[in-house]
């Protein structure tokens, strides 16, 4: 099954409603990168009238995780995925529409191929950066993902 923004956004509605109702949406995905957007609104703001850090976290995690999901689908194997650690840095007040971009798709592909080839779990660090409408960076996130083949029963 080919992943598309509309399929992932429908998935958000039913499986991650807090992200969906906060306005997190997958905008684009291909083999190399994914872009997730979220617009600063009343429902996702902090007391300082900017995008709440947790909403930025949901959007950035989706930007990295959707690349892992896509590559698992492409492999045709049963593979589990889990966030092992996360780090975020905030560089500017996030207002307006923020685009989170992860360009680590080829790194994900290599890790999935290695997991399938060796049968061993893999760990990979993926990066997502958030940009405002003027193209300035507002935050950077780093996610350590663990992937491994599921054991046959």
What can you see in these coordinates?
There is one protein chain. This protein is of the alpha+beta class and 153 residues long. Helix content is 35%, strand content 34%. The protein is built from 4 helices and 6 strands, in the order H-H-E-E-H-E-E-H-E-E. Helix 3 (53-75) packs across helix 4 (105-118). The model has no long low-confidence stretch (mean pLDDT 96).
Task: Name the descriptors.
6-stranded antiparallel β-sheet, 153 residues, 4 helices, alpha+beta, elongated, 6 strands, single chain
Question: What helical percentage do the residues reach?
Answer: 25-40%
Radius of gyration, in Å, reads: 16 Å
- Beta-strand percentage? 25-35%
Strand order of the largest sheet: 1-2-4-5-6-3
Largest sheet geometry: 6 strands, antiparallel
Mean pLDDT: 96
Cα(first) to Cα(last) distance is: 24 Å
Give me the number of helical elements: 4
* Number of E strands: 6
Assign an overall shape.
elongated
Low-confidence stretches: none
H/E element sequence: HHEEHEEHEE
Indicate the multimeric state.
single chain
Give the class from helix and strand content and strand pairing: alpha+beta
